[in-house]
Predict the 3D structure of the following.
Amino acid sequence: MFERIAVMGVGAIGGTIGGYLTRAGRDVTLIDQWGANVEEIRQNGVHVTAQDEDFYVPAKAIHLGEACNITERFDAIFLAMKSYDTIWATHFILPLLKPTGVVISAQNGINDDRIAPIAGFSRTIGCVITLGAGMYDPGNPVRTSVTDRLAFYVGELNGLNTARIQALADVMSDIGPTKITTNLWGERWAKLAVNSMANPICALTGLSSGESRSTPGVVDITVKIGAEVVKVATALGVSVEPINGVPADLYVKAAEDAEALEELKSELAETARQLGAGRPSMLQDVIKGRRTEIEYLDGYVAQKGREIGIPTPACDAITELIKKVERGELKSERDNIRYMEQFM
């Protein structure tokens, strides 16, 4: 069913997906706009660095500008671009898809509702990323989470457990443990909560993913952000799945009750050990001087909150702070957490 596969965007996640699938013998083409990345992969293959192994695998890589030369279309294209590139990238890859082909959103944020109106709802599949990865050198994705940890949820937008979702789960299992979900939107919002809590806090302070779940004071703030995400999602009619393995409603309780907060802190400290010293994508963007996805994470939550009358003061505040970091008005350093003291 998924004989020919492409990955559009060969960064941390796209490179990890492409590297493992290629090693498993899948027919994979990597498409990227970073010239040095494409050349490195052409010359030396994809170099995947994980906690338990380090491997090189020869891979097919083409530059974005060469995609017009592709003559045989794909059964599936993983869209692993930044959220702000979603719309143009979806239009770009459509001519490369077979009539029965699908676009698989392997991104942060909730982009399925941007892709589906362009590609078609029946040609859009959701993939929620739960593995951690980074990329600091061309051709070298670094898998930062343990390899036996759940890597992906895959699901249809309509919640059905279809034959193609089962086939996709089999493909994704070449990369890591994969589960099928019949509640894609609940998983999307749960991951949005994870990203909205960890990404901006780490980008603001320079903390690693694990440190954001275990550093005193910081956890109080992330819990407040998580609670706002759950409140907005619930008001929108979404049944949010567990966040970091913790029932979503516990975040709302913890934001208002000291005893519940201590219980949640203990659970988050335990899961932090599985994350290692990985940096979330927004901190990687800040380090590289790139635009962040803040408008598609906490900014998205705040926007949805305004639309339905749910206040999101913590998301509002962290969004504005990250915009200052983007503009160079604020440097990423640990002491910046003081700007969020009101939420401790």
Observations:
- The chain has two domains: 4-182, 186-343.
- The chain has a mean pLDDT of 94.
- The first helix runs from residue 12 to 23.
- The CA atoms of residues 9 and 32 lie 5 Å apart.
